[in-house]
Amino acid sequence: MTNLRYQFKIMKITSFDQYKQVYKHSVEQPEEFWAGIAETFQWKKKWDKVLEWNFKEPNVKWFQGGKLNITESCLDRHLEKDGDRAAIIWEPNDPKDEHRVLTYKQLHEKVCQFANVLKNNGAKKGDRICIYMPMVPELAIAVLACARIGAIHSVVFGGFSAQSIADRIQDASCNIVITADGSFRGNKEVPLKSIIDDALVQCPTVERTIVLTRTRTPVAMIKGRDVWWEDEIKKVETQGNPSCPAEEMDAEDMLFILYTSGSTGKPKGVVHTCGGYMVYTGYTFKTAFQYEPGEVYFCTADIGWITGHSYIAYGPLTQGATSVMFEGIPTYPSPGRLWEIVEKFKVNILYTAPTAIRSLMSFGDDVVKNKDLSSLTKLGSVGEPINEEAWHWFDEKIGHGNCPIIDTWWQTETGGFMISPIANVTPLKPSFATLPLPGVQPILVDEYGKEIEGNGVNGNLCIKFPWPGMLRTTYGDHERCRTTYFSAYENLYFTGDGCMRDENGYYRITGRVDDVLNVSGHRIGTAEVENAINMHSSVVESAVVGYPHDIKGQGVYAFVVCPNKHEDDELTRKDIVMTVARIIGAIAKPDKIQFVSGLPKTRSGKIMRRILRKVAEGDTSNLGDTSTLLDPAVVDEIKTGAL
Ligand code: PRX
C-alpha cells in the first residue's frame, strides 16, 4: 500500500511537472496508483486484488474482495465534521419560488428515509428500479436510496417517450418505478406520471410506482400499484426508524444501468459497478477541477444523463462538495438565468455544455454585462467538441480571462473524465481536451488497428488499459458489449470517436466516426431515428445523417421515401416529427426532412451515407465516386431538393 503523502499528492496536483511524474507512475505502476486513490474512500472491507482484466471477453474487475456502499463515501463519512455543510443547493424552475438547501446531515436523513420507503414497498438488493423524475432534490435522494439498499437504478431522462421508457423497463425487468406527477421545464409542464402510465401498459414486471408531488397535475393513481411519495414517507416517520444501514456490496456488484445510443439497434444498458465507479468519479472530480472543500460547484446537466450521475450526484458528494442542482433551462425566464444562479449562490466552478454556451452567446453580451460573475474561478465543458468561438466567449465573457476551461472528454461508458486539463496545472489550448488524466492510457489507431505513433497525427481513439470507471457489460447482453467496444481492435477499448494529436501530444476530439449523432450534447443513433420515422404509416424507408447546426452542434437531417404522402408536405413533415417524438422522445425530432423518391444505394443495397452527409452539409460540389450506385440519377434529384 502506498503512503498517505503519496495519496495526497496524486489527488492534489500543483504543477505540470508533477502531473507528468504522476502520469508516468500511473502507467508504470497502475495497480499501486489506483490502490493509492482507492484508499481515500470509505470501504467496509479493503480489496484483496486491485485488478484482473482482459479486453477479449471482456472481463474487467477492480478491487475484488472489497466491500462497500457508495453512499457511505457520499454521505456518512462527512457527517461528523461537515454534517452542516450544504450538499445540494437546489434552484427551482421558477426564480420566484424558494430555493432549497440540503446539508449533508439532511441529505443523509432523507436518503435513509426513502431507502426505508423502498424497503417497505418490497425493494431488495439486486432489484432494478426505474427512475423518471424532474430535476428536484428527490431525484438525487431516490438515486442514493437505491444505492443505499443495493438496488440497481436505471434513470431515464425526462425527455424520453413512453415507448422508450417501456423498452428500458422491459430490458432490465424493473419491478419498481419512481416518478412524479409532472415536471416544470421553462414554461412547459411535462405530465411524467401520465407518460409512465402509458409505458406501464407494456411492463408487467412493474409492481409498484412511487409518485412524488411536484406540479400537482391530476394523475391516475391505480389501487395496489401506485402510491404517493409523501404518504410513504409519513409511514416511515410513524415507524420511527430514521436510519437505514447501508447494504454491504461487493466492489463488482452493479450500481446502476444507464441506457445510451449506439450505431445499431435499440439503446444499450451500460452497466457500472460499485467500487470502481466510486473511486473513478470521486478521483476525476477532485483532480480535474482541483476541488477544494467549501467551493460551490454548479453542473448544469440533468441527472438523467451520465454527466448528472457522475458529476452532480456521486463524484462531488464523495468529495464533500457543495453541488448546485437546477430544475429549469438556461433560457427561462430569460437568457440570463444561468448567470443569475451563479450570482445568487456565488458559484465558484461552473460546468456546462458547448450547446448551452452557443445558445446563450446568441443573445448577445448585454445579458452577461450586468451580472456579477466574480465568484467564478474555474469553468468546465462537456458533451461535444467545443468550437473556438464558444471557447473564447466562455473564457472572456464568463471567466473574464481568469478561469481555466476544463474541457472534459469522456462517455457514458467511461463513467468519468478521461482526457481533460487539470485546473491551473495543464496549459490550455482552445478546443483541445488536452491530455489524459493520470491512470488513462489513450492510443490512436488506423482503420486496421495499427497504432499511429508520434505527434501531429489523426486516428481513431482507443484506450489500451482498463480504468476503474469503465463499463463492465451491457445489461443482459455481454456479447453486445464485446462486439460494440472490444472487437473492432484487438485488446483495445474503442471509443467511437475520431481524434487528432497535435505536435505537443495534445488531444482534440473531432467527433464520432460511427453512425451516432451528437445533438446538443446528447447521443442519438441514426438507426434508432430511422426506425422511428419508418413507423409512420406512409413512409417506405429513410436515412438519417447529421449536419452542422449553429447551436446544437449537429442537427438531424432525414431523407424520407414517402410516395403516398399527404398533398401538403408540411403536414406530413409534422406527422413524421410527431411520430419520432412518440417513439423516442422530443430530443430526437428531425430538424430537416427532405422527401426523396429513392435513396442512393450500392448494387448490394447499402445506403451510401457519405453522399447524404455531403448533401446535408450543403456541400454538393464533390460527391466522390457515384459509379457504384444502383441508380445514379437519384443523386441529382437529392441534390436539387436539398434543404
Ligand atoms: O463524441 C464524444 C462526445 O460525446 C460522446 C459521449 O456521449 P455520452 O456518452 O452521451 O456522454 C456525454 C457526456 C460525457 C463522446 O463519444 N464528447 C463528450 N465530451 C466531449 C465530447 N467530444 C468532444 N469534447 C468533449 N469534451
UniProtKB/TrEMBL annotation:
It comes from the Bacteria. Residues 19-74 form the Acetyl-coenzyme A synthetase N-terminal domain. Residues 528-606 form the AMP-binding enzyme C-terminal domain. GO terms for molecular function: acetate-CoA ligase activity. InterPro entries: Ac_CoA_lig (IPR011904), ACAS_N (IPR032387), AMP-bd_C (IPR025110), AMP-bd_C_sf (IPR045851), AMP-binding_CS (IPR020845), AMP-dep_synth/lig_dom (IPR000873), ANL_N_sf (IPR042099). The keyword Transport does not apply. It holds the Pfam family AMP-binding. Keywords: Acetylation, ATP-binding, Ligase, Nucleotide-binding. SUPFAM superfamilies: Acetyl-CoA synthetase-like. Its EC number is 6.2.1.1. The keyword Nucleotide-binding applies. Residues 76-466 form the AMP-dependent synthetase/ligase domain. It is an enzyme of class 6 (ligase). Belongs to the ATP-dependent AMP-binding enzyme family. This is Acetate--CoA ligase.
